[in-house]
């Protein structure tokens, strides 16, 4: 978690910091082949140089950014989880439970769908 240590240290709210760290650790343990990176001051995971998933912290929620194609792919699951979302991000309110099954679906989809992708973002 050394890559994310400085990012986590800047999260003032202890609950927000702990929850964010728990998610990042979960991904690191479940997907040990993904590379941990900080880009644009945000933690993200990549696979062979292509973006898989990233996060940002706000006062009211943790934002998850898996790319719009992925959001469309799991849209029904996002609705079932009760999360608000836009074309580019999913908002997990700090007071709501984290749907790890949804995170797993998004990460698995991106790893498979971007297996032959040679750029950071989809074209």
Brief characterization of the structure:
This protein has 123 residues and is α+β, with helices and mostly antiparallel strands. The chain has five helices and six strands, in the order ααββββααββα.
In words, what does this structure look like?
InterPro entries: YdhG-like. Residues 16-111 form the YdhG-like domain. It comes from Ureibacillus acetophenoni. With 123 residues, the protein is α+β, with helices and mostly antiparallel strands. The chain has one domain (2-113): Aspartate Aminotransferase, domain 1, CATH 3.90.1150. The chain is 42% helix and 24% strand. It is built from 5 helices and 6 strands. It has helices at 2-9, 14-30, 68-73, 75-81, 100-113; strands spanning 35-39, 42-47, 50-57, 61-65, 84-85, 90-93. Strands 1-2-3-4-6-5 form a 6-stranded antiparallel β-sheet. Strand 1 (35-39) and strand 2 form a beta hairpin. The mean pLDDT is 96.
Walk me through the topology:
Elements: H1 2-9, H2 14-30, E1 35-39, E2 42-47, E3 50-57, E4 61-65, H3 68-73, H4 75-81, E5 84-85, E6 90-93, H5 100-113
Antiparallel strand pairs: 1-2, 2-3, 3-4, 4-6, 5-6
Report the average pLDDT across residues.
Answer: 96
Shape: globular
Unreliably modeled segments: none
Estimated helix fraction: 40-55%
Head-to-tail CA distance between termini: 30 Å
β-strand number: 6
Q: Do you know the CATH topology?
A: Aspartate Aminotransferase, domain 1
- Quaternary state of this entry equals single chain
Structural class: alpha+beta
Strand order of the largest sheet: 1-2-3-4-6-5
